[in-house]
Amino acid sequence: MTEDAAAIQVHSLVKSYGRLRAVDGVDFSVRPGEIFGLIGPNGAGKTTTIECLEGLRAADGGRVRVLGLDPAADGQELRERIGVQLQQSALPDDMKVWEALDLFASYYRRPAPWKPLLERLGIADKRQTRFARLSGGQKQRLFIALALVNDPELVFLDELTTGLDPHARRSMWDLVKGIRERGKTVLLTTHFMEEAEFLCDRVLVLDHGRIVALDSPSELVRGLAREVRVLFTVESPLEAAALRAVPGVSRVEVNGSRVLVEGRGDRLICLVVNALDARSVRFRDLRTEQAGLEDVFLALTARPGPDGGAR
Amino acid sequence: MRGFWKLALVEIKIYLRQPEAAFFTLAFPLVLLFIFGSIYGNAPNELFGGRGMVDVSTPAYLAMIIGSTGLLSIAISISSYREKGVLRRYRATPLRPAAVLASQVVVHFLMTLVGAVLLIASARAVYGLRFPGRAGPVALGFALSALSFFAVGFLVASLARTARAAYIVGLVLYFPNLFLSGATIPKETFPPAIRSAGKFIPLTHVVDLLQGLWFGDPWGRHALAIGVLAGLFVLGVAVSAKAFRWE
User: Fold this and answer.
1) How high is the ipTM of this complex?
2) What is the phi/psi pair of residue A196, to 5°?
């Protein structure tokens, strides 16, 4: 990919705080129209990276281009063209929702009309509400609206859904998908692997300021090559041997009417079901457990802690 | 300048929505005026060198408004904006950082001015306030005093790590300034020891300057006050420029 074509281009980015190397030689690029995720444990360097890209923090080393601009030198120009939702920020308590949008719109050369934005984000009925009176989800919606008020080409979302309940989180996901459908590029950080798996085209896993993996969520999961588990309840007795003979199966456990089958292969579930069917074994409550991005995350960033577990 | 005036306008609205901020700037001086005015009236009084209580107190109350705006309002609002992340959010827009700080100066200066006009108008309407001086010098002296105390407010906000610390430091500075400077209780009633201690209180110089100009003194008679206030301004701006943090 040529540099001009990339929305974000990062070469050996380095940023230290005192003796701590928060970001230690990171390279990646983000394509236009992509939803790109940064994940990693607390303190992995996600927010520092994103703030270097936004021009809010000066990198100590490396080369960064965002929309073809150097954030350190052309921060003013860059901020005209990007939308930013920060992990920790606020508005004055007594500022009303409409005032915030009207105000932020006035900061840009080419503001988008903000009334339709309020409608789209579902906070049109909160126009007259002061910031301090908004719920956590409403505040996040307002911050997304502010991030979109300049009709940006690229949107940064830093831990958008932290602290939100599952309903609010799901509706944020729809909003993010909607942003991309409008042709914008999205770079987000998250703690929720489910979220990265659902939203991101590609995910970069950071740990101790270094890249430990960069791929699409499904490829990352496939790379882990974890076994699939199939669990079900049988209504008539079952010979474990009958299932052990199924190709790919590595383990069968029968515990009364509960059966657990472990194995590999994309067709494992299908083969198990066929084997049951062929023997006229009636079964119910069948479910499967597969490795997800969370397993990938834990495997890649695992480390022994004082309690023996992962940090 | 894009965004600057709108920010200033919104900040004014926000200021007026906070009753506690508006109280010290707009209401409290009037409360003092009416309490002391109803006790002493504004008849010429030997204690005040043959001047009326209200004539002497009104310029002193102007100093009080300036002190509370600088040491409390500015210090607290800027440090709490920083603590909450409001400044961070503004920084992620093309708005120039200087515009954010300048809007605070504009808003607080305007509010101080409104407080002053309310006070003077009330004193004139109710107690027949006399004004032997000239408006130009008083306005200039008022502006100099305000800028120098605003600079101190910025200094407090720059050095305090948290909004709570700024609040406490602001209060600790404010009360001695308020009571020992003659801004509330006329200096003429102080014992000599406190009067001389008051010379080391910055707000005393605002009271001296504004009272002097109010009664038509030439600038030259207040060189010390002007020097102290200009020095405070330079100190506040220089230290803030070095120590100010956005987050």
Assistant:
1) 0.88
2) -65, -40
